[in-house]
Amino acid sequence: MLGDNIKELMKLKKVTSKELAEIVDVSPTHISYVINNKRYPSVELLEKIADVLEVSVDEFFKDEPIKDEKLQEWKEKYNKQNKLAEQAKYIESIKLDSAEEAMKFILQQPSLMAFGGYDLKEMSEEEIMDLANDLLFAMKLSLEKMNRK
Questions:
Q1: Residues 38, 6: contact at Cβ < 8 Å?
Q2: Mean pLDDT for the chain overall
Q3: pTM of the model
Q4: Contacts of 34 by beta carbon, 8 Å cutoff, 6+ apart
Q5: Whole-number Å distance between alpha carbons of 52 and 49
Q6: Distance of CA 51 to the CA centre of its chain
Q7: Residue 135: which of 146, 149, 101 has the closest Cα?
Q8: pLDDT per residue over 97-116, tens digit each?
Q9: CA–CA distance, 108 with 115 (Å, rounded to integer)
C-alpha cells in the first residue's frame, strides 16, 4: 500500500528509484525496500520523499488506489511545470548582442506590439537594447512567479 502509492507517484513524476535515493540521501536499496513494501521508512524520509514527489505525506497512506482524476490533476501540474521550465530555458538562451537582435526580439513580442506606444524607428540602438533586456527581465520575473504557484 505505502510502497505502491509511492511507486505510482514516482511513475507520474518520472522519478527513478535511483534518482529518488540520491535526492533524499539514502541508498537505492533502501528505496527499493520501501517501494516494495519490505521496509517502513522513517517519518523524516517520508517527508523528504513527499517533497520530491510534490505531495503531502498522507497521499502515501490512502487505502484506495490513486484515482485517475487525481493522476490527471498531477499530470497537468507536472506538464505545466515542464512547460514553464522549457520557457525558462528558452528565455535564458536568448542573448541580445546587437541592436538588430534586440529589434528582432522586440518585434516577436505580440503583446508589446499590440500595446503600441513604441516608435522603434525613433529609438537609439541603446534604447532598443535596453527595452529588449527589460522585456527579458520581465519575462524571467513572470516565470519565477508562475513557478511559485
A1: no
A2: 80
A3: 0.47
A4: 2, 3, 6, 40, 41, 45, 49
A5: 5
A6: 14
A7: 101
A8: 888 888 887 777 766 655 55
A9: 13
Same domain, 80 and 127: yes
Are 140 and 146 a contacting pair, CB within 8 Å?
A: no
Cα separations in angstroms, 106 against 45, 103, 116, 131, 136: 48, 5, 12, 8, 10
Q: Alpha-carbon distance 119 to 105, whole Å?
A: 15
Burial of 105 (0-12, 13-18, 19+ CB in 10 A): buried
- Residue 42's domain comprises 2-66
d(CA 52, CA 59): 13
What is the count of structural domains for the chain?
2
Extract the C-alpha cell encoding 147. 513557478
Last residue of a domain, one of 16, 35, 66: 66
- Can you tell me which residue has the cell 515542464? 82
C-alpha grid cell, residue 21: 535515493
Could you tell me the three cell numbers for 53? 514527489
Q: Give the pLDDT confidence of 9-43 residue by residue, as tens digits.
A: 888 888 999 999 999 999 999 999 999 999 989 99
